[in-house]
Design goal:
The complex is a heterodimer of chains A (293) and B (347).
Chain A: H1 2-33, H2 40-44, H3 55-61, H4 64-97, H5 100-115, H6 118-128, H7 135-142, H8 154-182, H9 186-194, H10 199-227, H11 231-236, H12 248-258, H13 262-286
Helix pairs in contact in A: 1-13, 4-8, 4-10, 5-8, 8-10, 12-13
Chain B: E1 4-12, E2 18-27, E3 32-36, H1 43-51, E4 58-63, E5 66-67, E6 78-81, H2 93-103, H3 108-122, H4 137-149, E7 155-159, H5 167-184, E8 187-192, H6 195-201, E9 204-209, E10 212-217, H7 219-224, H8 229-234, E11 241-243, H9 249-252, E12 261-265, E13 270-271, E14 280-291, E15 296-302, E16 305-311, E17 322-327, E18 333-336
Parallel strand pairs in B: 3-8, 3-9, 6-7, 7-8
Antiparallel strand pairs in B: 1-2, 1-4, 4-5, 9-10, 11-12, 12-18, 13-17, 14-15, 14-17, 15-16
The chains are: A mainly alpha (293), B alpha+beta (347).
Amino acid sequence: MKRKRSTGALFVLPALVLLAVFVFIPLIGVLGLSLTDFGVYSLADSANLHVIGAANYWHLLRDREAWQALETTLVVVVVGVPATLFLSLVSALMIESIAERWRGMFRTALFVPVVCSTVAIAISWRYLLNTRFGLVNHLLALLGLGAPDWLGSPHLAILAITIVVVWKGFGYGMIIVSAARKEIPDELYDAARIEGAGVHQRLLRITVPMLAPTLGLLALLDVSGYWQLFAEPYVLTQGGPLGSTTSLLLLMYERGFRWWRWGAASAIAVALTAVMWLFAWVQRHTRAGWRGE
Amino acid sequence: MAALEIEHVEKILRGGQAVLRDVSCSARDGELLVVVGPSGCGKSTLLRLVAGLESVTRGVIRIGERTVNELPPQQRDVAMVFQNHALYPHMTVYENLAFGLRVRGTPRARLDQRVRLVAAQLGIEAMLKRFPRELSGGQRQRTALGRAMLRNPSVFLLDEPLSSLDAPLRAELRRELAALHRSLGATMVYVTHDQSEALSLGQRMVVLAGGRVQQIDTPAHVFQRPANRFVAGFVGWPPMNFLTADSFDDVARVPAGQGALEYGVRPECFSARPGGGDDLQLTGRIERIESQGSEWDLELTHRLGRVLARLRPERTLEVGEQIRLWVARGHLHAFDLTSGARVELKP
């Protein structure tokens, strides 16, 4: 048995080493850094490095920029996640209803944004959303609507970011929902039809509840993904205007790599992780009822 | 309750493949009609046509006085029990039972009363709060039955409802189902591939093969006077022996002008002792002996081929031994060699 255990450990070792180098050690490092005022001055002279305890966290709590970044991030999560789930569900169900030979084409078209580079997508959208030359405003003009300054006004900018994020994200959910939908036995729909359930009742009483575990999983993935919003605002708006699109991750990046205040940036990273853990914990303990078979 | 009539129904798939050809049969008001046939014979399709899950290519389906061909499933007043139960996995037993009434907007008090009544009838009151995955096979089956009973439909359609259960439970539920049918007095169409189920359950049975009706009659008649060679071989276990034996023709008293025949003898119709002078004789070598408890299955090689006989022997038999068996003339079935149709022998 002892020999077996050591053989097992040997197999696990490579993964553990990778995890240690890229996850555990950085995690502990960040946790340590967040308790210091480590910054560009401490690089020059280690005498400038002080352990300041929880001071970075206290500052964060009174930091208006941090609160604004939290709000921005939450808006994207709270608006974006339900929108993504809704579009994933609707597109998955709609694709099923179109003729088989067109299905692949539509599925691919809706999935392409998922596999495209975020930066490339953000740049494309910057052109699409351009106030004077963008296709979006051109179409709005055809409809007789005004030409809003999408990325220039604080409220619209966060909306534009959310739209781009959702548009890029929902195709993934669509594929997952499609697969889960195929797992629902046809007999259930036959039974429901005989019992008198119409199209809408079959959708609301069978399809949606049967997909609930899948949608729950997607919600978790989307929340954790959107919580780490970074590339879209970084490329589209650089966090502006007036910091209205600065997400928490973007704020961390700016503190860390623009202002060289690694201690403060680490505190943001730790806070982000903590909230994410809290969310996962709540999610795990509130998933009541049916869990699939 | 209502009678069900199926007249000259055909079902041809889009690719041109005919699943059902000119099928006519009917279930009288309150009758339990069993449709039996090998897999792929179209029996499930027939049920789906009656339910309205698929549409007929030709023919008429009537429930009571109404022609239902064009009606959607929910307006046909039928209920169906599926092979794999088709219980909604995300709903409790209570919700599963209540589903049909709920989607039809039945008032809650009446719905609750119905659910509890039916659950009590089936002995699943204690299970109402459970999910289907927490039930045993029998309880699931009862829930599926209960769901069908809840709306008091005109016609019950049962698609191999017992085939997913193990043998003892199947027998138990079969008896329960027969009792349930008597107490409900409902019209039921019961589809199965199991001929023993059909024999024991049905008031009448429809034997279906290759999309065509082979015979419609009471189980006793189907067993005693199978309409053709297929039915003779399909109904009854172990299956009937078929022999092409000109030497039987004299004894069998074949009608004049009849072409070549094939004879059928059920394994249990052999006897180790001569009866009357009219008996047929058959001598063979014992190849295999299998005890069935009180009876023995003997596999013989006879000059006309292999024969299976089920006997209650009075002495010990050995493999390799020559044995002489007798068959009373009345137990002989005869079929036309080319058409397979039953040929009545002279008394």
